[in-house]
User: Which sequence fits this backbone?
């Protein structure tokens, strides 16, 4: 591998999009208190209407441009009594939106998504977008 390609890959792995740089793994990090990001506003009628519009105008065309989701046995949902847990086998950041858009609107409107607090809720703009677009709430992951 040429030197420039190796340097570009190193730069790509280290770039953190608005986050503080990673410390080397051998450096002990202090235990940080969980940060709180309020998400109740994302379940208000105005946010639900905005989310429905974003799903139809942005997320659905984006997902369908990349994959062709197929839904099987959706009729089973009518036999379930909430609460229910839907679990996506994490392949990309489009897992949660794909799962949400595969649900009937009545289920989609009542589904909240647990998202990694250290990534999706680390900066205000990503936290707000995540809460609004996929109705997410932060989930703390254990450090290393």
Assistant:
């Amino acid at each position: 591998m040429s030197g420039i390609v190796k340097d570009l890959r190193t730069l790509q792995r280290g770039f953190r999009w608005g986050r503080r740089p990673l410390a080397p793994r051998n450096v002990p990090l202090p235990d940080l208190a969980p940060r709180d990001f309020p998400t109740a506003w994302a379940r208000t009628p105005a946010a639900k209407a905005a989310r429905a519009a974003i799903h139809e105008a942005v997320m659905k065309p984006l997902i369908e441009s990349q994959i062709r989701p197929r839904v099987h046995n959706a009729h089973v949902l009518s036999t379930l009594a909430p609460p229910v847990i839907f679990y996506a086998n994490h392949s990309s950041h489009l897992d949660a939106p794909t799962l949400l858009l595969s649900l009937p609107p009545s289920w989609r409107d009542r589904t909240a998504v647990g998202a990694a607090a250290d990534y999706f809720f680390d900066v205000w703009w990503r936290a707000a977008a995540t809460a609004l677009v996929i109705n997410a709430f932060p989930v703390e992951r254990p450090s290393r």
